[in-house]
Structures are given as structure tokens and as C-alpha cells.
Amino acid sequence: MGIKRSLIKELTQKELQELCSRYKLKGYSGKKHSQLVDFLCENLAVPDEEVEGFVVTLVKDRLTAKIKDANDYFLTKRVHIVGAEENLIKANVGGYNIIIENLGRDDFNYTCDERCQDWLYQVKKGRYPFCKHYPAVLAELIFSEMINVDEIRPNYIDGDMLGALRRMVETRKRQEGLIFPKDRSLEERFGNIESDLLPISLQNQVLARDKYHERAELVFENLVNDAFLLLECETIQRRKTGGWDLLVMGTNASPPFIAVVECKTAADGIYEQVLTNPNYLYRLREYCIDLTKNRLIGALADYVKYMVIVAPGFPMEVNSLTFRFSEMTGGLHLSFLPVDSLIHLLRSYHKAPIITHSMIEKMLLREKLITQEDVEQLVIESQREMVNLANKCKGKLREKLQEVLYRTADASFIKLDTVLFEKILTEVVKQLAPDLVRVGTKEAVGVSTYSLMHDYYKVWEYVLNELVKEFVAVLKEQSEQRVKRTELKEEMLNMLDLR
Questions:
Q1: Lowest CB count within 10 Å: 4, 70, 179, 356, which one?
Q2: pTM (2 decimals)?
């Protein structure tokens, strides 16, 4: 019993609760740390070796979590290498000064800023070997190719922790277009969301710990972030406790929009705190206004328009909160997105990527509990918009061709010079804005620019196929109608004097 107690008492209160949940113990809710330790010692009927194995896993996962926490600095480019000599590295991580000496050697030493609470109360007291600022510096060194971890093994970082550090660097490289993900990785991420998002949202701690090596709450945030990324949105995620969980950017909408996202799990499948906590809307207002909108300048602040709560499910009464929230925030829109609706939205997009950011914004504008029926309607509306876009382009193509046909078409050819050809093409492409093309101008030289949205390749495929059909139809009409002599025939008539 003494060995078990010594192992268990090293766990945090949340980890003790996780241990109770893993072994399906009842009656632990509401107990404090010391009470949970006593409760587990009395009721956990498993061998000490098994408990020790779980505790060792938790300790490793804690350190891996610190590496993941470094994302808040590394992925947002807040790590700066101030100086790097052979045995001395100085860096600044989000305002915290770090000094690393003799990296990879037995006489390694590192110090963090005295303002770092983790350094003061965890590292210096020997509870953990490093704080989250240390792996942030390592990630920047690897990314900048200042160290090679195959040659210099970072102290305290190995195994799964080194894998997490490598993945963090790969994520940054993908974000900056230096490497490209393989299709298999996208399919794997989609599969994880399909299979795991709902059970994780229901606080399945065993699945979260065994597969993702973190608590369900953090895994849920990561999977929701992945879901929005697979919808071709850009995201900013932070693991810091307090405040918003995600910022989701509909970059391809015109103008772009920003949604502040709160991710909440609920063991019973219904997240009710938004109704039962009288201060909940004020907290959401703080996330949107104080922590986001007021920290942005100009048009970026105007892009903050939506607040979205993602949870396994909600009471229908939440629809009554949207008008009040809009009044509190000066017109921001509140939506509630259940997990099954998010999965259905992702499946629909994965099957046929025709749901644009503009269409997603229309859904968020409805300020309601988003159901699977709403997603179905969104798909139908997206199909209708795609058809309308194709018809608009076809109409413009026919209109512009008709303007030149009567002057340039003969029995064999439709004659276009460079000016006419570019004019027709430009007018048709303009019809695709802002849905598929963003039109701009290089002011210095007065040249028009066209930014093509490659994410909506299925919409492009449909529209271009319809344009080809329309162009072929015009060619067929000309073939059947035109009898005007060609230049070849005119020349022969002149030379043969047959007029």
C-alpha cells in the first residue's frame, strides 16, 4: 500500500480523476487531492506495477505536453535566437530570456527567465527537467538549421518527446510552404476526426491518453482545430489556459472573416453551462472583444464577426442567447456547433469540396444551434451557387463572342487578335470574382492581378467544364450558320479572275 500511495500522491488532481475514470471507479467526484489519494488507495484494486506504469506514462506525457505548449511561441514566430556560439545559446521566447550552455553534453545547463512560473516552481525545485520555453528554443534552432538533432541530441528530449519536437518543426515548415504534406496524412487526420471527435468530446480519457497522450480536453481542441484546417480555413490555436481556444479565419471569403472558437467537452453529451452560468456570455464577450477585436487594427478588427462554441451537444434553449450576445458585443454573431454537425460538414466537404468560406459564413450568420439539416441545406445552397456561377460565366462568354462574331467569323474561322482574346478572357474571369478569383492591381505598374483559389478545385472543375460546353455550342452554331467566304477562297477568286 505504501508503494501505491507514494506513486499516486505525485499525480495532479486531474490526473487522479483520470485514474479513477480509467478504472471505472465511482464516487470520486468532488473530492480534493488528498481525499482522492485516500480514495484510490482504498478502492484501486490493481497491482503496484500497473499503477507505476501508468504514472511513468503520465510523467512522459507531461513533458511531451510542455513541448506541445511551445507551439504558442514557435508557430507564432515569437522565438528569437539572440546569439549562438559553440557552447552558448541565448534566446528570447515571447519576452522571456533563455540561456542554454553545452547543449547535448553531460555538463549541460540552462536557465530561464525568473518571471517564468514554471521555471521557478517546477524546474528549480526538481519536479520537471525543463519548462516550455526550452523546447521552443530547440524548435527554432532546428528550423533555422543551426543544430541537427541527429548529431546533437538535445538534453532531456528523446523518444516521443523528440518526435513531438520534429512534428512541431514540420508544421512550421508546412505553414511557410517549405514542405508539403502527403495525401496519406490528410486522410489520417480526417479518419481520426471521424472516429475520435465524438468520444473525445464525451471525455473518453482512456482513448485520449492511450492514443494522443493528453487529456481529452486538449485532444478535443486539437481535433476541432484539425477539422477547420481540413475545411481549408486558417487557424490560430493556443494551449494557454484561459481565453479563447481557436481563431478560425475564412481567408477565401470576400472580405475575410474571423470566428473566435470555444471548445467544450461534456461527459453526458450536453454542454449546459452556457445556460446555467449567468456570466458565461460576458466571458465570451471578453474573448471576442477584449482578447481579439480590440487587439487588432483597422480592417483586421472588422473581420472579427463570429463566436462559435463547439461541444458534443447543446440544449435547444441556447438559441435564445444569440440576440442578447449580439447586443452585448455590438453586432457579433453567436453560433453553437455540435460535434455531429461539424463531422457532417467535414464529411460533406471531403466528399465534394464545393462549400466555400462565403457559404460557411452564411451559415454562421444565422445565429443558431447548427443542426445536420442546416449542413444539408448548406450543401444544396453551395450546389446552387456553383450552378449560378457557371451560368454567369457562360452568359458572359457568349455575350463577348457575339460582339465579334459578326465581324470576324467566316465559313471556317472565328478570328481573334491578342487584344480581343485577352478582353474576352478577362471579362469571363472577372465573373469568377470573388467566389474563385480575387482581382487586384499592382499600383506601381498598373497591372491587373488575379489570385486563383485552388482550394475550390471541384467548383473550378464544374465551371470550366460548363464553359467548355458553352464554347463548343457557340462553335457548333457558327459551323451550321456561317457561309461567309474565307480569305483563302477570296484570294483564289481574285487570282483566277472568276468574279
A1: 179
A2: 0.86
Q: Which residue has the cell 478569383?
A: 437
Q: Is the dihedral of CA 145, 147, 150, 153 positive or negative?
A: negative
Return the closest-CA partner of residue 259 out of 250, 267, 268. Answer: 250
pLDDT-derived band at 481 (thresholds 50, 70, 90) equals confident
Contact (CB, 8 A) for 416 and 403: no
Domain boundaries in the chain? 2-46, 69-175, 183-370, 381-491
Collapse the DSSP code of 80 into the 3-class scheme (helix H, G, I; strand E, B; otherwise coil) and give the result: strand
Which amino acid is residue 460, in one-letter code?
W
Query: How many other C-beta atoms are found inside a 10 Å radius of the C-beta of residue 187?
Result: 11
Per CATH, the number for 183-370 is 3.40.91.30
Listing DSSP states for 257-310 in one string gives: EEEEEEE---TTS---HHHH-TTHHHHHHIIIIITTGGGS-THHHHHEEEEEEE
- Residue 379's CB is within 10 A of a number of other CB atoms, namely 18
Single out the residue of 212, 196, 191 nearest to residue 312, CA to CA. Answer: 196
Burial category of 398 from C-beta neighbours within 10 Å (exposed 0-12, middle 13-18, buried 19 and up) = middle
Decide if pLDDT at 186 tops 90.
Answer: no
- Nearest residue to 328 (alpha-carbon basis) of 362, 272, 290, 297: 290
What pLDDT was estimated at residue 187? 86
Query: Helix count (H) and strand count (E) of the chain?
Result: 21, 11
Task: Retrieve residue 115's grid coordinates.
Answer: 518571471
Could you give the CA distance from residue 421 to residue 468 in angstroms, rounded to a whole number?
Answer: 16
